[in-house]
Amino acid sequence: MGPQQDRRSMANGTRKETKVVVVVQYRECQRNHAASIGGYAVDGCREFMASGADGTAAALLCAACGCHRSFHRREVEPDCDCSSTTSG
Fold first, then answer.
1. How far apart are CA 1 and CA 43, in angstroms?
2. CA dihedral defined by 83, 4, 47, 73, rounded to 10 degrees?
3. Please, are residues 53 and 59 in contact by the beta-carbon 8 Å criterion?
4. Which among 18, 11, 15 has a CA at the least distance from the CA of 3?
5. Which strand ranges, in their side-by-side order, compose the sheet holding 6-11?
């Protein structure tokens, strides 16, 4: 199942719905700027900041360092496990 799909189970006539919400944050840039000369050097960008609004191409570029979002370390945290039980 994907990160935001519903999980449903039936037990003793009650229906339990669980929705898992996942929060994804992009942290420090890990792009190696000296890879072409055989070295290792990062630019020190501490956190991804989108250059544009969500849904645009600029949203995938970091305003601080100019790198693509994929160069930044991805951190996935489950936000909450919100459950509700209904009789049915």
1. 37
2. 120
3. yes
4. 18
5. 6-11, 14-29, 72-87
Show the tokens assigned to 2.
């994907």
Tokens in use for 7? 């999980």
Question: pLDDT tens digit string along 18-72?
Answer: 777 888 999 999 999 999 999 999 988 999 999 999 999 999 999 999 999 999 9
For the CA atoms of 62, 68, 70, 72, what is the dihedral angle to 10 degrees?
Answer: -40
Tokens of 38: 């055989």
Q: Which of 22, 23, 68 has its CA nearest to residue 45?
A: 68
* pLDDT at residue number 86: 56
Residue keyed to tokens 């199942």: 1
How many alpha carbons lie under 13 Å from residue 25 in its C-beta half-sphere? Answer: 9
Residue 60 CA to its chain's centroid (Å): 12
